[in-house]
Amino acid sequence: MRKPFVAGNWKMNMLVAESRHLVSEMVPGLQSIEGVDRVICPPFTALLAVSALLEGTDIGLGAQNLFWESAGAFTGEISPSMVAEMCQYVILGHSERRANFGEIDSMVNKKIHAALAHALTPIVCVGETLEEYESGRTEEVVFRQVKMGLAGLDLRQEKDQSSPLVIAYEPVWAIGTGRAATPDVASDIIANVIRAALIDGFGDDLARTTRVLYGGSVTSENATDFFNKDEIDGALVGGASLKATEFIKIVRIAKAG
């Protein structure tokens, strides 16, 4: 059994004071839910404030990105060691990074290597665009993103050890549009494309223990349908994670599922 996992990606939202208020509203409810890994991913400017509020809880903290170099003349970038000072997780390869900032598979791969080298758990995002979806290229694109994103990694595991990463299947056409993929389609892609790519690259054990999330317009209204699928281990939640009661509801549904 893979432990359910729900992460909230706040994207470029919430000033520091707003972040403190939102987390203060979330913590009591999230702390009351056992059996689910819960992760909050605020913008960089709020990481320190949120980290302080999460101290002493078992709620994880994640960054939304990092750069692959440890230090140097990279103005505006954040190194893995800077992230690891406060965080346990980091979102990498999100479609908005790929679409708006030109990130390609080889860049995502460098970031994943760097995150793992600094004991961070990457939440690796993969997913096809609307054009790719409509042209029937979903399987090709998602398989390539998994294979190239994880290329060159040594992910051999000790017996019964859990996977060192999490994957989020986020069809780009469903992100922030209110148009989610159907649970059947998402489950099929996870089972027959993402896990197949993991088996091809790393074997059955890693494929079996890697948690794969769904992301893309997840709400408390549709979460049950997704979490009832055995292949879907949780969610990477966007807009709904900016509302304390909504995010808590989704985590509760993940536990029930």
Key structural traits:
8 strands; TIM Barrel; 11 helices; 257 residues; alpha/beta
Distance between the ends: 12 Å
Total helical segments: 11
CATH secondary-structure class: Alpha Beta
Going across the biggest sheet, name each strand in turn: 1-2-3-4-5-6-7-8
User: Order of SSEs, N→C?
Assistant: EHEHEHEHHEHHEHHEHEH
Quick one: overall form?
globular
State the major sheet: 8 strands, parallel, barrel
Class computed from helices, strands and strand pairing = alpha/beta
Tally of individual domains: 1
CATH architecture: Alpha-Beta Barrel
Radius of gyration: 17 Å
The overall pLDDT average reads: 95
Task: Outline the secondary-structure elements.
Elements: E1 5-9, H1 16-31, E2 37-41, H2 47-54, E3 60-63, H3 80-84, E4 89-92, H4 95-101, H5 105-117, E5 121-126, H6 130-134, H7 138-149, E6 166-169, H8 183-202, H9 204-209, E7 211-215, H10 223-227, E8 234-237, H11 244-256
Parallel strand pairs: 1-2, 1-8, 2-3, 3-4, 4-5, 5-6, 6-7, 7-8
